[in-house]
Amino acid sequence: MSLGPVTPQQMFFSEPLPLQSGATLPEYQLTYETYGTLNAERSNAVLVCHALNASHHVAGLDERGVKGWWDNLVGPGKPLDTNRFFVIGVNNPGSCFGSTGPMHPNPTSPVPGRVWGADFPVVTVEDWVDAQARLVQRLGITQLAAVLGGSLGGMQALAWTLRHPQMLRHCIAVATAPNLSAQNIAFNEVARRAIVTDPDFHGGHFYEHGVLPKRGLRVARMVGHITYLAEDAMDTKFGRELRAAVLRYSTQEIEFQIESYLRHQGDKFAEYFDANTYLLITRALDYFDPAAAHGGDLARAFAANPATLDKRFLIVSFTTDWRFAPERSREIVKALVDNRIGVSYAEIDAPHGHDAFLLEDPRYHAVMRHYFERIAGEVQAAVPSADEGLQ
Amino acid sequence: MSLGPVTPQQMFFSEPLPLQSGATLPEYQLTYETYGTLNAERSNAVLVCHALNASHHVAGLDERGVKGWWDNLVGPGKPLDTNRFFVIGVNNPGSCFGSTGPMHPNPTSPVPGRVWGADFPVVTVEDWVDAQARLVQRLGITQLAAVLGGSLGGMQALAWTLRHPQMLRHCIAVATAPNLSAQNIAFNEVARRAIVTDPDFHGGHFYEHGVLPKRGLRVARMVGHITYLAEDAMDTKFGRELRAAVLRYSTQEIEFQIESYLRHQGDKFAEYFDANTYLLITRALDYFDPAAAHGGDLARAFAANPATLDKRFLIVSFTTDWRFAPERSREIVKALVDNRIGVSYAEIDAPHGHDAFLLEDPRYHAVMRHYFERIAGEVQAAVPSADEGLQ
User: Fold this and answer.
1) Rounded CA separation A369/B57 (Å)
2) Which of A275, B110, B248, B317 has the most crowded CB, counting CB atoms within 10 A?
3) Is this prediction's ipTM beyond 0.90?
4) How confident is the model at residue A390 (pLDDT cuts 50, 70, 90)?
């Protein structure tokens, strides 16, 4: 039931990418993976957008044997069935998993080979979607069957419908929000301050100093991780369980299992994640707000382009997600309904908080399977039959 | 309606304080303030316990003209009326506002004058209550009319009823919990890691290096502050409001007002708060769990001492407090009701989150006023009248 080993691919873009900020990314490479086979009509492609710390490696096993981050959803016979769909996973520019990012040479620098570091241009969800659209075009795909994403990935899926509506038919946005709340931004800012004030950050040019701002990254990950988990699930899993049989009465040693777990998450993260990428991606989250250009009215954002109106949407939220609560998904649904845009909405009663979108909940996966079967049926119906072809 | 200028007092204790950890605090000084007049029967005293970053300065104006942290509640004609009650505010040992703490000389150190720093013994809510009880005894008070506190102060009020039940009649615990949840501990741990991993922390002996771990303190305060505010109130107050007219597209500069507010809170806090105190106080929060010694059954904790059973309680919670939600207060109420202990419970529909306990909500203050009027009535009734005295 798994795709087995998969190999990432690279695509280079020499044409500069204009960014929302007014800056441009002069040239860039995207790392991506594909699963399944593109049909002759090139009508069965699904793009999967990643969230904060994920990558192009959506499914299958990478060269180290590590499963893709959405392997439970994507594969042969899985809800997003690679026997029927051609699935594309792509790492966004600014990330740290192969696509051009802050750790790569800055071609605009007067110092040859100097890496971007903190000078990497600030990228937005819309910039990523533009970069993804170029990749899709280069793959010879005029229209995607669907764009799918969870959390920040869901924001990208929404942005696709507003920015390149002709290039997709379905948008599937899971555990996401039409913008960040003040509290969401606040948590991001705490994480950024932890990183930026780490003396090893060196203003974002730590690469040149041979150090990594791991202290800041650890704290950033710890605070982020708390917001991904439901409070009740944390109590069920850890509660007030102690690590040792007796209390140590120490402010710095670990007393509670939850501390041990969080420190471990922080340590792991600091080993593989880039500090500048963390800043860039949390900023892209902060900035995302498609309603802003329309007086804060999301319905008007969807109405602004007639090509958006015939897209169809699946919106999924999770009851215990307090990062992007169901209320936030319902704002999206309402804006779509106000425009009479076709939308299915599922609110899944799952205990896992925001992280639920990555987990294998039977009701959640049933909703996803059903929706992709519907898309597959449309793809099938649109294929001219052999008989028709002969007439 | 204000107490006007008030003067802190000091009391020195040469008798060592045995601590829950097994260690002892060899000698210590407590800083305290009192407001109002102790009556002849010494029956109208109310002790106010402080939370994380507060102090003995509960009401009136200090030497710099700064109002006490609960000045809206405590004063002449206020809900806790200093015309009727003798109110005591005391700074806990380990804090940084005058009572013996990590920034004071360690008398057990072989180096004369060396400050405690990170060697200050770990103190618990119960240790604080024991220290407070000694102060109360020295003031010649056998029984307090009430012990009052909010948040961590509420935990101290609860601990009083379990530890020194003969020494009080009423317990008023506001916006508190019978223990911390895994999520509460997790946020504390993030704050502690930010402080401890700040290179200027120097293992808690930063005083000797002439530096302060301000970076860590700032991040600690920022994350704490988020948990004190209700998400909706944050959206109402800040929302996605920008600081400037146009976006800067920067990961390090301030874009949103909420960032500016949080950074300001962090900066202010780092100027006046001691890093070791932050560790000690968050740890005391983590450890508090009176039910733990009774198989996790809070009702049994209250039942363990017969003298606890005739105390009377006022428990107050706030609907939007997600740090110590109403559910946590209801756990306390249930344990009291299970023991047929007299308890009044008010759940105040206030928008301000955990911070509501410090604010002047009319319904909240009406509940407090009414309850203190009842206590004042009891105090009055217990006073022998002049006639009775003559017979």
Assistant:
1) 61
2) A275
3) yes
4) very low
User: Chain A: residue nearest B241 by CA?
Assistant: A182
Sequence-separated (6 or more) residues with CB below 8 Å from residue A261: A238
B189 touches chain A (CB under 8 A): yes
Q: What's the Cα-to-Cα distance from A291 to each of A70, A159, A179, A348, B214, rounded to whole Å?
A: 29, 11, 8, 26, 38
CA A242 to CA B188: how far, in whole Å?
Answer: 15
User: Which of the pair, A243 or A389, is modelled with greater confidence?
Assistant: A243
pLDDT tops 50 at residue A154: yes
Tens digit of each residue's pLDDT (9 = 90 or more) over A343-382 = 999 999 999 999 999 999 999 999 999 999 999 999 999 8
Interface contact A240-B197, CB threshold 8 A: no
Residue to test with chain B: of A24, A119, A193, most B Cβ within 10 A:
A193
Q: Which two tokens stand for residue A223?
A: 């605070």
Mean pLDDT, chain A, whole residue set: 96
Q: What is the pLDDT of residue B390?
A: 46
Which residue of B218, B258, B287 is in closest CB contact with A182? Answer: B258
Q: Which residue of B has its CA nearest to A266?
A: B190
Write out chain A residues lying below 8 Å of B239, CB-based: 181-182
pLDDT in tens, B376-385: 999 999 887 6
Contact by Cβ (8 Å): B82, B35: yes
Q: Comparing C-alpha atoms, which of B54, B42, B56 is closest to residue B7?
A: B56
Looking at chain B, which residue has its C-alpha nearest residue A247? B21
Residue A139, min C-alpha distance to chain B (Å): 31
